[in-house]
Amino acid sequence: MMNTNLCVRSLALIAALGTTIVLGGCIEAALLGGAATGVMVGSDRRPAEVVLGDERVELTANNRLGQILNEKSHVNVTSFNYTILLTGEVPDAKSKEDAEKTLTQIERVKGVVNELQIAGASSMQARGNDTFLTGRIKTAFVGPQKFSPLNVKVVTEAGVVFLLGLVTRKEADDATEIARGIGGVQKVVRVFEYLPSTPPPPAPAAPTPIN
């Protein structure tokens, strides 16, 4: 087992953590609006304690992955409402399976969406392109004003865009449509949790006939 030397560099704490780890290297919390992820805590639909809980889950997950994976792995960990999204690259199927099993054991985690690819670690240029693409999508969310961009978290890996958040079905559809329209997006994967639909208003009472 490899003893990895991990460092954490928080670029901004105005958003819920969406960390990226390169095992044997440095964990960077890229939290500037158009970086890998970002949601303003003050406008988040999650309770404040859940936002902080997701941050703790991500830090714990990064720690545990650093103990079981080697330097050939590049793994992104995003926790939203205690569901973990795993993206990135690992060298073999066992590493992918071990990563998922390890993270399901973290306290409060409801489930793991394992989107790890069995491949060589992506280049810094590819990761930079993903960050740029995330920024373009977040910017595109602002223009139409169909929903609050702060309610949708964006994670991009190898041109595949993952959308997370507590949203209505219409918000999910609008966000998906906008993301698909951005050049360079290969695919959009929805990892949303859906809010209950608002029931229709009751029908007005029939008028009482006057005799």
Q: Tell me, what's the shape?
A: globular
Count of helical regions: 4
Low-confidence parts: 1-40
Radius of gyration: 20 Å
Mean pLDDT: 83
Order of helices and strands: EEEHEEHEEHEEHE
The largest sheet, given as strand count, sense and whether it forms a barrel, is: 7 strands, mixed
Oligomeric category: single chain
How many beta-strand elements? 10
The structural domain count equals 2
Strand-residue proportion: 15-25%
Structural class by helix and strand composition: alpha/beta
Give the end-to-end Cα distance, rounded to a whole number of Å.
89 Å
Portion of residues within helices: 25-40%
Topology:
Layout: E1 8-10, E2 19-22, E3 27-29, H1 48-68, E4 74-80, E5 83-90, H2 93-104, E6 111-114, E7 117-118, H3 124-142, E8 153-157, E9 160-167, H4 169-180, E10 187-194
Parallel strand pairs: 1-3, 5-6, 5-7, 9-10
Antiparallel strand pairs: 2-3, 2-4, 4-5, 8-9
Would you kindly provide a written description of the structure presented here, covering whatever features stand out?
The chain is an alpha/beta fold and 211 residues long. The protein has helices spanning 48-68, 93-104, 124-142, 169-180, and strands at 8-10, 19-22, 27-29, 74-80, 83-90, 111-114, 117-118, 153-157, 160-167, 187-194. It folds into two domains: 8-118, no CATH class; 124-194, Alpha-Beta Plaits (2-Layer Sandwich). The protein is 30% helix and 25% strand. Helix 1 (48-68) crosses helix 2 (93-104). The protein is globular, with a radius of gyration of 20 Å.
